[in-house]
Write a structure and sequence with these properties.
two-stranded antiparallel sheet; about 5% strand; about 150 residues; mainly alpha
């Protein structure tokens, strides 16, 4: 009776139960899927982590070294604030304030030269306004500054 019960149980066993000495197919499938899943998630994590650096590289960003350092800090310290800062720096284009201010300064210098208030020499020239004589310090600072 026990042998017939054993035969009946073996006949109705699910596919993932193997006999003695046979390889376990379900275990092999699970092991391979876990290994591939871990490698896939690792590749996704690293490619997502390099996103700010790739964005900065493709846009030819001037702050690419800062962005690279922030992404490496975020990778090694697991601090997401560094990664977020790198992403914001990579995405946001900082406007150019230097060029319009230099153009305004050059225009003011040209207007001052036309009125004869300022000469092309480097020394300060007194400006007379009624009785008082003052030196225009702002124009001298702008004139003395040379950008490379």
């Amino acid at each position: 009776m026990e042998s017939s019960l054993r035969e009946t149980a073996i006949a109705h066993a699910p596919f993932f139960i193997t006999g003695p000495g046979q390889s376990d197919v379900l275990f092999t499938i699970v092991v391979w899927s876990v290994v591939l899943g871990v490698f896939g998630l690792g590749a996704l994590y690293l490619s997502l982590h390099a996103l700010p650096e790739r964005l900065a590289h493709h846009a030819n960003h001037t702050q690419i070294q800062l962005i690279s350092i922030l992404t490496l800090l975020a990778l090694f310290t697991h601090n997401n604030l560094f990664w977020l800062a790198a992403l914001v720096i990579a995405v946001v284009q900082v406007p150019d304030f230097h060029t319009p201010i230099n153009a305004i300064a050059d225009a003011v210098k040209a207007m001052a030269r036309e009125k004869g208030v300022m000469s092309d020499s480097t020394g300060p020239k007194p400006v007379t306004d009624g009785d008082a004589t003052t030196i225009s310090a702002d124009m001298n600072v702008q004139e003395g500054r040379k950008d490379v």
